[in-house]
């Protein structure tokens, strides 16, 4: 996924009210950027750290920038929660994820029951519903999800089990927007209910794909599938 606009460099002053961040640009100007990540952003917040923003021209938007990434321990961590959906769609469309390739039809935002899944794919042999989650939290060598309690995420897992029970393929795709981790796991201490449901879903046949992404100011690319522990 290539960024459509040239990103703007700055430093994080502070994040506040969940969806806002004060950024000092290289020019010295202080701007307010929109933060798409509603979670706690544990392990990817550091005041004074380098950041990159996308400029926004929409006159209806109060904020004129969207926060894309932050440099932590010398590497870029993607914090825009909208990007993983774009990455996943492009990757399935182009057959770039081994095990999730070979589909002739790929669509975004498809309903199943009272849920809406991020990606739907099919071919002559199967139908597949994919839910995509952004992962930015790190603990030691682990990438963890979620970084805050997610009742919506719990609902998606239950619906994926229903998808599987109806004879279709059900996939939980975690896009890990950082390169300094080696394993994926649910954040049991933050949301034990989600961790239990993920284990239950996996036992019911829901597939887990933790895909690590390489984040840079020009593009975000999927690099490899990580092992996971439940």
From TrEMBL:
It holds the Pfam family SfsA. It comes from Draconibacterium sediminis. Residues 84-218 form the Sugar fermentation stimulation protein C-terminal domain. Residues 13-79 form the SfsA N-terminal OB domain. The gene is sfsA. It comes from the Bacteria. This is Sugar fermentation stimulation protein homolog. InterPro entries: SfsA, SfsA_C, SfsA_N. Belongs to the SfsA family. GO terms for molecular function: DNA binding.
């Amino acid at each position: 996924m290539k960024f459509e606009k040239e990103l703007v460099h700055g430093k994080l002053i502070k994040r506040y009210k969940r969806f806002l961040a004060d950024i000092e640009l290289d020019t010295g100007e202080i701007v307010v950027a929109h933060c798409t990540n509603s979670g706690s952003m544990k392990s990817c917040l550091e005041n004074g750290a380098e950041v990159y923003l996308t400029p926004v021209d929409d006159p209806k938007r109060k904020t004129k920038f969207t926060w894309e990434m932050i440099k932590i321990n010398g590497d870029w961590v993607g914090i825009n929660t909208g990007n993983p959906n774009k990455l996943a769609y492009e990757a399935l469309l182009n057959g770039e994820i081994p095990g999730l390739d070979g589909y002739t039809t790929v669509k975004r935002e498809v309903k199943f029951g009272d849920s809406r899944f991020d990606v739907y794919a099919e071919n002559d042999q199967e139908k597949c519903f994919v839910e995509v989650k952004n992962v930015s939290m790190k603990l030691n060598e682990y990438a963890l999800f979620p970084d805050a309690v997610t009742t919506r995420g719990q609902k998606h897992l239950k619906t994926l089990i229903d998808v599987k029970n109806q004879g279709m393929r059900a996939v939980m795709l975690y896009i890990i927007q950082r390169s300094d981790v080696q394993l994926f796991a649910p954040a049991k201490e933050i949301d034990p209910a989600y961790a239990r449901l993920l284990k239950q879903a996996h036992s019911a046949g829901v597939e887990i794909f933790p895909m690590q992404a390489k984040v840079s100011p020009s593009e975000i690319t999927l690099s490899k599938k990580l092992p996971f522990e439940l």
